[in-house]
Structure formats: structure tokens, C-alpha cells
Amino acid sequence: MSEEYLMTGSFGLDVDAWQGSFYDDDLPVDWRAASYSILLRSVLLPQSEWRQAAKNNWIDEVDEGFRFILYAITPAEADLHNLIEELSGLPAAFSAQVAGLVLKYDWRNAGEEVSKTILELNNMFPVCLDAGTADYSISGVDMFCHEVQLSSVWYPAAQKAPLPSGEFLIVLIDQQTLPEQRKIVSEIGRWMSGKRSAGLFNTSKDDAPLRAQKTRILAELMGV
Fold first, then answer.
1. 135 vs 157, 161, 181, CA distance in Å?
2. Separation of alpha carbons 68 and 41, rounded Å
3. Sign of CA dihedral 71, 124, 119, 198
4. Residue in 216, 192, 219 with CA at minimum distance from that of residue 37
5. Which end of the chain is more exposed for a tag (fewer CB within 10 A), N or C?
6. What gap in Å lies between CA 44 and CA 70, rounded to an integer?
7. Rounded mean pLDDT of 110-114?
8. CATH number of the domain at 7-222, please?
9. For residue range 113-162, what is the model confidence (pLDDT) as tens digits?
10. Do residues 166 and 188 lie in contact, with contact meaning Cβ atoms separated by under 8 Å?
11. What is the C-alpha to C-alpha distance for residues 138 and 170, in angstroms, rounded to an integer?
């Protein structure tokens, strides 16, 4: 078993659609991070939200054990360098609670310099690439991840198992049942053997945090 625990949560937390279900009807918008952190201990933030989190000091709303994972989309090589500059400028207190970075980048056109830049990002925060839901071997992402020693986001609905490479794995689910999630959590537990870390996040637009609460309980009961 890994020395790390499995991080669980939702994709985003500042979502109006969750007001009245996950968040109380009368909860002020700027209290969402605090309310979320009481029930879930990590979150995968889209780019717009982590920029907001850093700017508005969301770390003041959560305790020091809470973890943020940042999601970034960089369509061109120049965007990778801009991302490095942006991440370097994050407040130190916020960066201290960032557990990793999910990077969506068109790796198929990646040359040696791009690979070096991605590894530079990995030196700042653990990186997990997002190559989408295509079969790893058909797309060739398995070879690229092996080369740079990173993992790729695992979509259990479309891919049988996570790639074995890397030290940091993100898994995205949506409508999977608890029995299906049990198998997923077991597979993640095997992947985490040693000191590797992983996060399992729900992407459902309607009720992701409610689903993530059940996933958190399941993972804790399974000891992952």
C-alpha cells in the first residue's frame, strides 16, 4: 500500500448548479471553498478556477491539509513557457497546497525541447498528462509517457487500466456505480504501491461533489 492516500473530489468547486444541492441555498458564493473542504479534502480545479483561487486567497478558507490539483490546457509550445511563468508567480502559500498539475497538451507534435519543458513543469509540481479517452497504445501516448516518465489521465469508462509510468496519476469518472468504482479504486491502489500519489475526481456537471463524497467513503473503507 502507498504511503499516500487517494485524493478524491470533484472537477471544480465554484459551480452555480450545485447551489441548493451540495451547497446550501443561502451560502454566499465566496464561502464555497470553505464549505467544500469540510466534506471533501481535494479538488481538481480548471484553469479559470485556480487562477481565481490564487487571486482570492482560497487557502484562507481551507485548512493546511487540503489539496488543490490544477488543470491546464496549453495548445502551443509558447503556452507551456507562459504556464511556467504563471505557476512560478503563484503565492507561495497557495503553491504549498498544490498536489499536482494535469496538463492537456498535443504531445504528438512534441519535440525534445517540449519534452524538456514538460519535465521542467514536473519539477515544479507533479504532472499527469491528459491525452483524452483514446486507447493508449493506438494513440501512442504510452510510448511518450514512458519516454518522459509521466503518467496520463486514466478514463476508466474508455481505458482498461492506467499507464504504469509516472509518479502521479489522475483518474476521471462520471456516472460509474459504486461497484464499478470499487474496481477502479482497487486498480488505483495497486498503481499507488510504494510512494506514488493519485487522485480520483468526478466530472458530473450536475452532482459531482455529491458523488465524490460517496467515493471518498468507499476509498477510506477500502484503505486506499
1. 11, 10, 20
2. 9
3. negative
4. 216
5. N
6. 6
7. 74
8. 3.20.20.410
9. 788 889 999 999 999 999 999 898 888 889 989 999 999 999 999 999 99
10. no
11. 20
